[in-house]
Amino acid sequence: HTDTNTLNVGVAATIAKLTVDNIEIDGNNVTAKTGNLVLSADGVSFVTIDKLEITDTTDFAGANAALIVNGGVDIDKKLNVDGVVTFTKDTESTDPTIGALKITGGVGIAKNLNVAGITSITNTTSSTSSITGAFKVAGGVGILGDLNIGAAVGFGSTALPSVDNQHDFGSASRRWKNIHANDFVGKLVGS
Question: Measured between alpha carbons, how far is 16 from 8 in angstroms, rounded to an integer?
Fold first, then answer.
């Protein structure tokens, strides 16, 4: 064979496949008989693949996963994942630009969101009603611990204790200065 640009192995050959060292080319299949199949460019150019299907069904297992990428990955279009997504990087988040997962756009979550760490909302939009502000909740809110509010509280409905006749409004050491009300129903104690 004298043509240095192409090598055609087809139906005219006795065996329609080509074996070079450990690599076998048979029709549309390129196989490494042992070890890994490595496709590499010159360090500047890319190896271009129009479509790639990975048929290995190995579940996430670190070095034994079906796809391992040592460098970064840039995806220009949608990424659809049918399985669970796990991020093993444990970078702490101290603002919206730092953390193990950073998202430039909005996030839509159709089901529950469970957060084990502290949740910080850095948006400072003021709230003037139940449908405005940096944090808006369409349904009710259940809080098991203390709630500390640093500014005015506005109620769009009746404020009720969780059970009847068991909780105080203020205490002997932390009193309200003035109470403004239209009507008072109950018993006044003290002066």
Answer: 10
Residue 86, amino acid: T
For residue 62, the SS3 value is: helix
Tell me the one-letter amino acid at 34. T
Contact of 140 with 133, CB cutoff 8 Å: no
Q: How many CB atoms lie within 10 A of CB 176?
A: 7
**If we measure between CA atoms, which residue out of 101, 64, 71 comes closest to residue 85?**
101
CB 161 within 8 A of CB 167: yes
Three-point CA angle 77, 83, 88, nearest 5°: 85
**Contact in structure between 162 and 188 (CB atoms under 8 Å):** no
**Beta strands per DSSP E along the chain:** 18-20, 23-26, 29-32
46 and 39 Cβ atoms separated by less than 8 Å: no
pLDDT per 10-residue tile (average), the chain, 191 residues: 55 63 83 82 80 84 82 90 88 91 92 92 91 92 90 87 89 90 86 65
Q: Reduced to 3 states, what is the DSSP secondary structure of residue 63? A: helix
What does the block give as tokens for 8?
């055609």
